[in-house]
Design brief:
Layout: H1 9-19, H2 23-29, H3 48-65, E1 73-77, H4 83-91, E2 96-101, H5 104-113, E3 121-126, E4 139-145, H6 153-163, E5 164-177, H7 179-188, H8 194-200, H9 209-218, E6 221-228, H10 230-233, H11 235-244, H12 250-268, E7 272-281
Parallel strand pairs: 1-2, 1-4, 2-3, 4-5
Antiparallel strand pairs: 5-7, 6-7
Helix pairs in contact: 2-3, 3-4, 8-12, 11-12
Length: 282
């Protein structure tokens, strides 16, 4: 049985603005709902159009890290509006692509907007990240683009390992704390902050690299790449703060701005690193 989605109000507002035809929201978020990546962060101007391009760039960084090529079977878990699926279909051929999300509204939008290119195949599936209705060893790559902090990580890593064929890989992006920061964030229960929960929902920001290695080892995986791209993602915060400034409800602006500021401070102080991780199956 699929669990009911626990979506933050921020997603509700984003979907509403897209449905209302808000051009700035569409330029930034019609394809991807995640942080952006800039090659030269100091030069970022953070227009909605540039943000949309930066989000696509982050998607490509993950896909390149995963080594995706023609003919692969790929599952994108937490696929949002299907932007990564669309990007892959545009760039490669003979792909079998499956997008998984627990929120039927996001899947509905993805199914409406994303069409396969050439002879690629695309399927969208509503499922919990720990219970994906696909066969054992049925894919070459599992992706999780800025979604894993919403999951039970131990259950998700086990499920990803089940899905992967030998030699396949799990590639994801996550906010990864230093070992000392992980203990501190756990102690203060950072994720329970009212603003954080309103803005980003139920999240867990306490999984360090050592913890990831433990989870990988327990499930027949090995961490083979850890790339810290925090600096490249920092302009995201400027854009998000500006994008919320004209929301009609001041309380929502206050909560979102506070939550995003907390994440920015933790990132700039080195407590949280935005990392791209690749795990290979033995």
């Amino acid at each position: 049985m699929t669990a009911q989605p626990n979506n933050p109000p921020y997603i509700d507002g984003l979907l509403q603005r897209l449905a209302n035809g808000d051009s700035r929201t569409a330029a930034a978020f019609s394809r991807h709902v995640h942080w952006g990546y800039w090659e030269e962060p100091p030069r970022a101007v953070c227009t909605p159009e540039e943000y949309g391009e930066a989000a696509e760039h982050l998607c490509r960084v993950l896909c390149n890290t995963a080594g995706i090529d023609d003919g692969m079977r790929i599952v994108d878990v937490g696929c949002g509006f299907g932007g990564t699926i669309a990007s892959l279909s545009e760039r490669f051929g003979q792909l079998q692509l499956v997008g998984v999300n627990i929120d039927p509204r996001q899947l509905e939008r993805a199914a409406e907007l994303v069409r396969p290119c050439g002879i690629n195949s695309i399927e969208f599936v509503q499922a919990d990240a720990a219970r994906i209705p696909l066969d054992d060893s049925s894919c070459d790559v599992v992706l999780a683009v800025e979604s894993v902090f919403h999951f039970d990580r131990a259950a998700f890593v086990a499920e990803a390992s089940r899905l992967l064929a030998p030699g396949g890989n799990l590639t994801l992006s996550d906010f990864v704390p230093s070992e000392r920061a992980a203990e501190y964030l756990d102690a203060i229960d950072f994720s329970a902050d009212e603003a954080v929960q309103w803005s980003y929902g139920e999240i867990d920001l306490t999984c360090s690299l050592d913890r990831y290695r433990e989870l990988a080892k327990a499930n027949g995986l090995r961490l083979t790449k850890a790339m810290d791209v925090t600096e490249n993602t920092l302009p995201t915060y400027k854009f998000l703060a500006a994008s919320a400034s004209d929301w009609p409800k001041s309380r929502e602006v206050e909560l979102f701005t506070r939550a995003t500021s907390l994440l920015e401070k933790a990132s700039r102080k080195g407590m949280l690193g935005y990392q791209v991780l690749r795990f290979e199956k033995h």
